[in-house]
Amino acid sequence: MTVLIVDDEEPIRELISYNVAREGFSFAEAANGQEALRLAKSIRPNVIILDLMLPDMNGLDVCRALKSDAETADIPVIMESAKTDDSDIVAGLELGADDYITKPFSPKVLIARIRSVLRRSSARKTEPSVPEEIRIRDIRIIPRKHEVFIRNAAVELSAAEFSILLFLAEHPGQVFSRQQIIYAVKGDGYPVTDRSVDVQILSIRRKLGDSPDKNSADAHPPLIETIRGVGYRLREEV
Prior knowledge:
The protein is an alpha/beta fold. Helices cover 41% and strands 20% of the residues. It contains eight helices and twelve strands. Helix 1 crosses helix 5, helix 2 packs parallel to helix 3 and helix 6 (159-170) packs across helix 8 (194-208). Residues 2-118 form the Response regulatory domain.
């Protein structure tokens, strides 16, 4: 198991590397975002510890680049920063980060977080393989490339939005609560609220144009349905 440590502060890298080595992990280090992206592709670490504040790139931009690249999208990312603002935490998680830890942190807590995201990652890899492509109406979803197209026009979804859409598309007609959606795409204990799921669904609908003109005779009903008091489902096309 290899941990990629991305932080511009050498003492922090030394602290993390010492503790992960004690636990039997191998590690690599990067002091900036560009080096982190290069190493992520070349060594394919099992998990990345990513600082939010880097000298050349914002950690959020690094996370976005990792999650939008098919070669690195599945690598778990734990963001770490001295910032404690909810907006920073939510931004990181919605870009696809798997966890968030604030400085100063306990090495024991960090190791526990690493093991937790590795367990979730391992569980996802043992799930049944997904199809090469899923088609719904004029929408094409390509799971392995994290790509979505509407009539051959690419749709830009965040990592979290893509995961939710893919999960619903894999289970057409089934109703899921918000917590079931969170658990399915991120695992148990993921720090996201029900309200965050609502925001993600709203954004997916907007990007897919899933708000039909009710005055149009050939308008389709909404693809993603809200089941009041329960959650959401993707309409099963017949």
